[in-house]
Design brief:
This protein is about 40% helix and about 15% strand. It has one domain: Rossmann fold. The chain is built from seven helices and seven strands; from the N terminus they run E-H-E-H-E-H-E-H-E-H-E-H-H-E. A seven-stranded parallel beta sheet has the order 3-2-1-4-5-6-7, with helices on both faces.
Length: about 260
Amino acid sequence: MSVDIARYRPAPGAFRDRVVLVTGAGTGIGRAVARDLARSGATVGLLGRTPKTLESVYDEIVASDAPKPALLPFDLERALAQDYDRLAAVIASEFGRLDGLVHCAAILGNRTPIEHYDVPTWCRVLHINLTAGFVVTQVLLPQLARSADPCIVFTTSGVGSRGRAYWGAYAVSKFGTEGLAQVLADELDGKMRVNLVNPGPVRTDMRALAYPGEDRSTLAAPEDITGPYLYLAGPDSRGVTGQRFDCQPHRQSGTPAAAAPSA
């Protein structure tokens, strides 16, 4: 039976006893994904830079009678090797294993021509959007390997598969993310599934930075596009790996909106 991934909703309790870490869980898509995972029965690790926003998500999840999540304040920009090791140790101590890793953390950087792109900003965007995600994944692979059904979900973008003028480091970081996911999926084929999600245009703060004059009421809300994330992070997607999914497949393509960031 085919699955309408864009509109997917798991069966009640489908994520019971599953442990899933979500990066960028304090705001935007990461927040919506974390809440929906918890409401579906998952124990969620909430990783993000700002404790206040993480605590807000934590309170929402607890109030919904979902499994108690774990607060994991973590600055991807400034973290050192020992910080990543401590993160892995905390997750091992708290949960003993990890069933899913969902990458939603990202920053936009500048929308400017490559000729004038600020080098420190370039390095910052590439580090947060790509390198830090690689390191988080690498240090957590041993714990994912202990799961009977491990999975990794990366977030990409319309500009991650076809570059567009002025998207600079953000676009390049998403190209890199797609490459990382493809390499990892090939290496782990049969052991762990690895997939990509392109959210499309979503009503987030990052989107507002990219298109400050846009009518936000025309955009999907973060909670409207979590279906592919839930599908790929859960047991219903067993056997699916190395693929890229669009959250809004029926949206008109070929427009600036279709290529904009959303996380």
